[in-house]
Amino acid sequence: MFRALYLEQNADKTTAASIRSLDDSALPAFERNGVTVDVGFSTINYKDGLAITGKSPVVRKWPMVPGIDFVGTVSASDDARWQPGDAVILNGWGVGEAHWGGLAEKARVNGDWLVRLPAALQPFDAMALGTAGYTAMLCVLALERQGVKPGDGEILVTGATGGVGSVAVSLLSRRGYRVAASTGKAAEAEYLKTLGAQEIVDRAMLSAPGKPLQKERWAGVVDTVGSHTLANACASTRYGGTVTACGLAQGMDLPVTVAPFILRGVSLIGIDSVMAPLARRTEAWEGLAQDIDRAALALIARRIGLAEALAAAPGILAGNVRGRLVVDVRQ
Q1: Do residues 162 and 181 touch, judged by C-beta distance below 8 A?
Q2: For a Cys staple, 192 with which of 148, 197, 290, 308, CB 3.0–4.6 Å?
């Protein structure tokens, strides 16, 4: 038997969420490469908040165990690449949406979806970073692949007090970039400065409709917000700069013109963490293990128990949670 956060769909299409004890036989079966993992930690991400509350049709198969990421130890494997005792991480691949996820004491997944836990990372640290940290590193790597260097100018991070934003601020600062952190939470300015931000930008300056082409300022951008914020970030990026987009907290729309792209050569790079290939995932996790500031991680992450994850979901959606919530699934 194992405990899990369990989602069911009611007759009226609303979601019922509870903590259940399930038999091991309930775990999903795989025709090949199935791997059973004793989960140590998972997290609550924005997508998990949507699934648990039913605020958006994230769940594609019922019943569902949410949790788009986890870290744990292999207990059984039909995949020759993974042996009992191996420490592994999972992010994305539709887990917590179409396949049972990490908010449980056990998970069974396809071995293709797993990444080996870097030796330099403790399991708690891996989920303190989680999909948010992994996504932040994908953004940083994308900026670097586009040739954005620390000496080129400021990097804007939007939604900076969220999970992706917090880790991005820390990573960019550690790599020598000057970071401007955008937030609507003035009380969190010191938190962001402690993570490495050198300037705090009021999100109101970015979140309203703006001119299609604005004063050049940013050498690069990590945007977690979308909508008008992303449009204004593009409009104010310097010639040849790069904007990475990985979130939609403000909205899925993008009210931008072609002006920044054809007059300033700005690049807009989409960041997908769900289906990213193994090589890119491994590069991101190895980079996190090398570059993450443990002191910053202690500020970013807070540990909660499995039952607390239910109550935490609405706060994630409302933007009331700073940093990362790490779920100890055995607590």
Answers
A1: no
A2: 197
Are 265 and 242 a contacting pair, CB within 8 Å? no
Q: Which homologous superfamily does the CATH classification assign to the domain defined by 2-117+298-328?
A: Medium-chain alcohol dehydrogenases, catalytic domain (3.90.180.10)
Phi, psi at residue 108, to the nearest 5°? -130, 125
* Cα–Cα dist 115/118, whole Å: 9
Rounded CA gap, 138 and 44, in Å? 19
Buried-exposed string 246-266: b where 16+ CB fall within 10 A, e elsewhere: bbbbbeeeeebeeebeeebeb
Q: Where are the domains of the chain?
A: 2-117+298-328, 131-270
In contact, 247 and 159? CB cutoff 8 Å = yes
Q: Residue 247: name the closest of 90, 93, 101, 138 by CA.
A: 138
This prediction has a pTM of 0.91
- Domain 131-270: homologous superfamily in CATH: NAD(P)-binding Rossmann-like Domain (3.40.50.720)
Identity at 272, one-letter amino acid code = D
Task: Tell me the pLDDT tens digit for each residue of 161-171.
Answer: 998 999 999 99
**160 vs 191: CA distance, rounded Å:** 10
Phi, psi of 313 (to 5 degrees): -55, -50
